Amino acid sequence: MKPVIAFTIGDINGIGPEIILRSVSSQSVASICRPVLVGPWSAFEYYARKLRLRLPPLVVSEPPAQRPPVPRPGRPLVTSGRIAAASLRHAVVLATRGFADAIVTAPVAKTVMKKAGLRFPGQTEYLQHLTGSPRAGMMLVAGAFRVGLITIHIPVNQISRVLNSALLKERIALYHEALRHDWGIRHPKLAVLGLNPHAGESGLLGKEEQEIIIPTLKQLKRRGVNIAGPFPADAFFARRKQRGFDAVIAMYHDQGLIPLKMEAAGHGVNVTAGLPVIRTSPDHGTGFDIAGRGTADHGSMIAAVRAAVHIFRQRR
Q1: Average pLDDT score over residue span 156-183
Q2: Where are the domains of the chain?
Q3: Which residues contact 74 (CB under 8 A, 6 or more apart)?
Q4: What is the dotted CATH code of the domain comprising 1-133+275-316?
């Protein structure tokens, strides 16, 4: 039986509704899952009419107590942040109660969500809160190229302050477990990047490698984890060393995601590891500058659906 995928609408003034509608209308998605659209039907209907999309029969599950919104393509409004948050909450209810097998989230704007009252820096952290998960991590995937992040949505000047051995062990264990259970890799091989230029140059350009990263990796190796590093990030990706590993562990957001997104060419997938529910997402933002024009590429959304279905089957 095909899994039920709950698609959250994201920001109704961005490209989320468009890429959802285009994806669920494609045979590549219809052949592998049963879609449920989570959000106000009036918003989906607005974009279907505006973009002249022919849609198959769809199930729409609207969050409770929602007034029919009027989309304003390209405008980051507080009301759209509230709608996006309500859709996430409702999708988690569907998934945790067994009405959906996985969640695929459309993009939201973090600044809009904050203005709408959410204290979480991103959907990953909000979903962790909603599901009551003690831990969660962010992985970006493009085929066999996978990147797991140690720190996620925090300012660069705070990375060194929050980086410690306990966090490294927790996140590395999380991604190691995801590779085994969600991708079926029995003995994952992991590469870890350094934090500083040249991986600290033996302490000359930073102490984090010598004091935190290297001792932690030695402990993990003694426990039987197949792990290597820390590697200087620039040389690692320049030499395409990621091809020799099942996943790359990056210390911070842009360190790992810039090379992955360049490799993915618009078809990368964001996977949240550690949640009791399956969650994937396109690797791009709300696209306010092209919202409502009918030009948004839905390739990353289709890739996110395929990843969710793959993980669902793998877990079963």
Answers
A1: 96
A2: 1-133+275-316, 136-273
A3: 13, 288, 289, 291, 292
A4: 3.40.718.10
